[in-house]
Specification:
With about 375 residues, the protein is an all-alpha fold. The chain folds into 2 domains: about 1-35 and about 145-365, no CATH class; about 40-115, no CATH class. It is built from 15 helices and 4 strands. It has helices at about 1-15, 15-35, 55-65, 75-90, 100-115, 145-170, 170-180, 180-185, 190-225, 250-280, 285-300, 310-315, 320, 325, 340-365; strands spanning about 45, 50, 335, 340. The strands form 2 sheets. Strands 1-2 form a two-stranded antiparallel ribbon. Strands 3-4 form a two-stranded antiparallel sheet. The protein is globular, with a radius of gyration of 25 Å. The two termini are about 30 Å apart.
Amino acid sequence: MISIVSLEIQKILKRKFILILLAIYSAILLFMAYAGHPDRYTPILTSEGKVLEGTEAVQYEKKLAEKYDTLSDADVQEILAENARILAEYTDENQMIGDDYYRYANGFYGAVASVFTDENGNYNHLPADQVYPGQDGLMQGGFTNGMDMLLSFLASFLLLAPLLLIVMISPVFAEEYTSGMDSLILSSRFGKTRCARAKILASFLCSAGIFAVTSLYLTLLTIGYFGTDGLFVDAHLCATGMIGNAPFDLPYWKAVLILAVMGFAGLLMITGFALAASALGTSSFVSVLVTLAFFALPMFLWGVWDIPWLNHILEMCPVNLLSPAKIFNLPAYEIGTTKIQVYQMGIIAAVCFTPVCAVCSYFGFQKHQVRS
């Protein structure tokens, strides 16, 4: 069985067009080493009038962030008072651009104010250790630029990888139909069983391999450039965060883990659907088009109609599970007295959807009518 799976993986990867796509994908991945390098970090002006660039700028901002550690109730009230003072003194945000201290402080203080003030701008008296469901201890601030970069890179590549997989996996069964090899495979002793299983397993292994290489490379790249600073910072308090509206406790390590799990779940769903479309379709071209539609359309259809059940279904589609704006910012599902977050529902959807697609592809290939 191992040799058959190995052969199927080679068949998937050795097509010339796929090799070209893999080379392009790898080149874009390698380009991230340049795009995220500290030498390209935005130059900053210190309070002493010194211009810092590259690694020096990163270290300076890390020092600035050290003072924004855990927040007690007293810390929150002091920050709210300081935030009000800054806003009164600097009426235009452009005035703060020239001084990195105030630019950074403004972002952090503004984030704290958004958490601990009501709609009228007054202190809401929320206990600092009980702001969000699941919170364990006081909220923590700090340097998050590295973690923000990792989340941004992961989100981008987890949207790019499915396009590569669709082109790779869609021909797995359909190509046998168009080449006429289906008659030979299906009439052989193990064609309907071992060969079909090997094709499915090889496809999922290719999907897992692309995910593992991509996520591991981007994670090591970020840690190499910025260290692990920010892993335990609360996303609601980051000065430059992209996930600060999550309705639950969300330190950065958890955000990275959730996005990675959602990415893997989305890739498995895409792979399963592509296999089913390939086995049940008539050609590789048709299966590619159908799978592309399944992947892309939910992104554009979500929210078009005010139909809650339809929007909930669209939220569980792979393209929306790969969007930080949705998995972190949408409200939880309420089932009776139980609240289930969007990412938790996404895991359930992937666990249910992927095996169904795999089974459909398996029996779809077995029942395929060979053309005479």
